[in-house]
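In this supplementary section we document a worked example of the pipeline. Step one takes a protein sequence of length 294 as its only input; no multiple sequence alignment statistics are reported here. Step two produces a three-dimensional model, which step three serialises into structure tokens for compact storage. The input and output of this example are shown verbatim.
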Amino acid sequence: MIREPEEQQIFDLYDDYCHGRIERREFFSRSAAITVGGMSALALAEGMLPNYAEAMTVSFTDARIKATWVDYDSPGGNSGAMRGYLVRPTVDGPFPAVLVIHENRGLNPYVQDVARRVAAAGFLALAPDGLSPVGGYPGNDDDGRTLQSNLDSDKLRQDIVNSARWLKTHTLATGKLGATGFCWGGSTTNHLAVTLGSELQAGVPFYGSGPDPADVPKIKAAMQMHYAENDERVNATRPGYEAALKAAGLPYEMYTYPGTGHGFHNNSTPRYVEAAADLAWERTIGWFRKHLAS
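The serialised model returned by step three reads:
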């Protein structure tokens, strides 16, 4: 996808806003100073904000799935307890399990929808809410991002590790475990692969920063990575990650999607690129079926 330079500036500003590098007020004020087609880009900037209601692809009433909220212990985390969104197929189990890890703002409706997509494909899915220790996702991304940035980051990742282990041993799980995540959740998927070793069978990070190459030999999971073409910060970690995977002889696939930017899978914002998102998701489910179903 080729954008006019002025339009790309708005997408870049939105990326800075999403990652907390600028505040909402600055995002809008700087956007208003840019013109696209002779008009202020403020309307374009306002249209960048997520529309979760229109982005739902699998309803919580879908006959293929059953969703519920669960609470579980999380020793060493931010509060010692966690809450997550557990979604199962309605057919009889057990099922291979997949952890779905949110972005940098808590468990918003987009990631809940992803968990339902995973369950509709035949897996037991858990989407943990890393904001559980501070009351959970607050209903909007701005407050969610602030809450997440104020948490102890090491304890937050321990909460996600504990969530993975809880899911793996669930009574409806086969014991085969996969993980996927987006942005912060993508980098945390890589962190899980390093931390869990042989406990994780497959990982699929979306535009997630790679781990320290020195830690890559700890990975035992089959890894499939999805990158946006225009994502300089994340893509800078790719060469070292790939070299370490090759040196360790680990099974992996890496894909870059032309014309996309960070967040291209998130169908609640204009960063969404449908063809790339659909292809990446088809590959994701195929990867999990290959490495978790047997």
